Amino acid sequence: MKKLLLLLIIFTTTLSSYGQEMSTMTDARDGKVYKTVKLQIELEGGIFIEREWMAENLNFEMENSVCYKNYPAYCGKFGRLYNWVDAKSACPENWHLSTQLEWQELMIAYGGYKTAGKHLKEGGSSNLGIIMGGFSNVEGQFSDISKTAHLWDAELGDKRTAGLISLYADYDEVSHDVISARNMNSCRCVKDY
Question: What start and end residues bound the annotated signal peptide (predicted)?
Fold first, then answer.
């Protein structure tokens, strides 16, 4: 029985890391090097797609981007925070701000919104390494460093709102919300395909 359990654990571990390739990319605009992960994702019906994601939050300085609480040291670990309009153009050439569809693909690959967080967070099986970088609201108040990760998606809600993916340090659920496009949140870029 113990041998069977051990084989099951090894098989499960092998499956969860199948289709991943770690690499790096250099942002030609400022020379920053980012870790990337190429994920092979199985959709319904046995269809496989491949997406290359940055495995770190974007840290490209733009006029309106900020570091958490305006301390540059936070940018080194957590990346910069962007409003939605700037986030749409912040990714390097041949990369784009992650879309709602691309986040949904991750939810399919990692068990759905209720449990995907454990795979997407730092140390998780996806190797995306999402860290809890907090956010800044429209009044410029910073909050939730080490507690939440809020990442823009490319979809506009209406003229004043935009899509947001949230992960939480204390539980594994991932949420998709629509919030003010003027909030400041983290960005993950996906290679164009």
Answer: 1-19
3-state class (DSSP) for residue 124: coil
Q: Is the pTM of this model over 0.85?
A: yes
Render pLDDT for 90-119 as a digit per residue (tens, 0 to 9): 999 999 999 999 999 999 999 999 999 999
In a domain, residue 187? The reply is yes
Q: Give a yes or no: residue 158 inside a domain.
A: yes
Residues 128 and 137: beta-carbon distance below 8 Å: no
Number of domains making up the chain: 1
Q: Does residue 156 contact residue 99 with C-beta atoms inside 8 Å?
A: no
User: What are phi and psi for residue 8, nearest 5 degrees?
Assistant: -65, -40
Beta bridge partners of 177: 164
Residue 117, domain member (yes or no): yes
Give CA 159 to chain center in angstroms: 24
